[in-house]
Amino acid sequence: MPLILSIVMTFVISLVTSAISLGMSEFTLLRWISAWGISWIIAFPTLLLVLPFVRELTKRIIKWANAN
Q1: What pLDDT, in 10s, does the model give residues 24-58?
Q2: How many other C-beta atoms can be found within 10 angstroms of the C-beta atom of residue 39?
């Protein structure tokens, strides 16, 4: 799941940010794919590191919400 999630999220976000920052006249597939690759290299390990903390935080929030 983290692998697919990181691919999809960075794919979409790099597309949007590349189009906005470059403008449509400067936007190319090569620039977008380059930005996506760099984004994914950073996002995937980050997701793997953060995921256990997010899971624990989610459990605590759900436990707190059910107690109230």
Answers
A1: 899 999 999 999 999 999 999 999 999 999 999 99
A2: 18
The answer to whether the beta carbons of residues 40 and 6 sit under 8 Å apart is: yes
Give, rounded to a whole angstrom, the gap between the first and last alpha carbons of the chain: 31
In angstroms, what CA-CA distances link 68 with 55, 60, 64, 65? 20, 12, 6, 5
Tokens, residue 49? 């590191």
How far apart are alpha carbons 33 and 59 in whole angstroms?
36
H helices of the chain, in order, are: 2-22, 29-67
Instruction: Tell whether pTM > 0.70.
Output: yes
